[in-house]
Here is the input.
Amino acid sequence: MAETSGKTACDTCASKGSDACDTCKDKVNLEQQEQKIRIAKNLSAIKYRIAIVSGKGGVGKSTVTAGIALSLAKKGYRVGVLDADISGPNMPHLLNVEGIRMGADVNGLIPIEAVHGIKVVSVESLISSSDSPVIWRGPMRSSIINQFLADVQWGELDFMLIDLPPGTGDEPLSIMQTIPLNGLVIVSTSSNLSVLDVSKIINMAKMLETKILGIVENMAYIECPDCGKRIYPFGEDTVKDLAGKYGIGSLGSIPMDVKNRGTDILTNEEPSLIIKNTNEIAENIVRSIEG
Ligand SMILES: Nc1ncnc2c1ncn2[C@@H]1O[C@H](COP(=O)(O)OP(=O)(O)OP(=O)(O)O)[C@@H](O)[C@H]1O
Here is the structure.
């Protein structure tokens, strides 16, 4: 919208403040333009934006995101986590800030701070209680993602990790189109069904011309605590074979942690099996994105 001497057309419009103002196309356009400017400004202070994706729900995408965030933050990187899984927000729980509400000031929303200064933004931190279901429909969900990008005071970050909803449906696709990404991390188990869905993610990434940083194989094996023998519940090389087929690098694998109860990846004094393995994965991500 044209601006004259710092004023917008809305400021000089005779309908300003009237009912007609609410439905005015010029006003909506102006708000969208202003939001785009705020998003661009926020994102320009974030060095790398990485989406964590999976073909299926329940394969450990959010757990792996939390582990990578923690591993990167421990290495001294400034990390933010955007929980873009609007209907199943788990990041506050995993990063041990569940139940804390996001504050706000004149400059916008203030992210919750988890251990090692990880900034966490999630709808869970806006709704009244963490067991309330999020029942917003499509347009509202994409508008909340835009607001998280435009109106949150992210500040300077080295990494923004975006925990996407699972699958290749409208929602992950539209979020991937909204946020200019530097790369994708795919999380899968070796089960045939999850691997099948990963091929769809790979094709989606190609379509969007987004770089795939590599695949993380989660729940890859169980190690016997007595003899150390590894048992591969979903087969041994399925993810590796898939990565080879599409020419994608492996970022590492994470065993099944039988002691895992969710938040204890952070609260246990002894680093959990998941964290031990995400340290190497985080290093591989840095190598892959900077390489
Ligand atoms: N390596 C692991 N060892 C043991 N349990 C794990 C491991 N990874 C994830 N889990 C557990 O598996 C369950 C699913 O994990 P998570 O919520 O991270 O999956 P998700 O892919 O993000 O699911 P969705 O996208 O459907 O929300 C959780 O209970 C989590 O604690």
In short: The two ends are 41 Å apart (CA to CA). The chain has ten helices and 14 strands. The mean pLDDT is 85. The longest helix spans residues 25-44.
